[in-house]
Amino acid sequence: EGGSWVDAENCGLGLQDLLIMLYFVVEPTNDTVLVEEPESHLHPEMQRKLLNICKERKEKQFVFSTHSSVFLDLTLADTILHTEMTDRLQSFIAL
């Protein structure tokens, strides 16, 4: 009450991206969420918070394509796969 609203389009790219990702995190009809470079435009601490929110959503599967050391956290070491495509053959390697 008494606060003012700011349109998302007037916010930074990090907040805009975060709002879109959070929508799919809480949206009930999608069981699998694919996110390319979730770290884009986000401070490392915000990346950690987003990752923790995703980890709490046990009913969903998240697939991240990332270069961020935050998302490659050792707490997820058993769920990280490295994928590579060469000569039309694709391989998946558990790290």
What does it look like?
- With 95 residues, the protein is α+β, with helices and mostly antiparallel strands.
- The strands form 2 sheets. A two-stranded parallel sheet has the order 1-2.
- It has a domain at 8-67.
- The chain has helices spanning 13-26, 44-56; strands spanning 32-36, 61-65, 81-86, 89-94.
- The model has no long low-confidence stretch (mean pLDDT 83).
- The protein starts with 12 loop residues before the first helix and ends with a strand.
- The chain is built from 2 helices and 4 strands; from the N terminus they run H-E-H-E-E-E.
- The protein is 28% helix and 23% strand.
Beta-strand portion reads: 15-25%
Overall average residue pLDDT:
83
User: Spans of 5+ residues with little confidence (pLDDT < 50)?
Assistant: none
State the order of secondary-structure elements, H for helix, E for strand. Answer: HEHEEE
The count of strands amounts to 4
Envelope shape: elongated
Helical residue percent? 25-40%
Q: Strand count, sense and closure of the main sheet?
A: 2 strands, parallel
Cα radius of gyration in angstroms: 16 Å
Count of individual helical segments: 2
Distance between the termini: 49 Å
Query: Structural class of the secondary structure composition?
Result: alpha+beta
The largest sheet has its strands arranged as 1-2
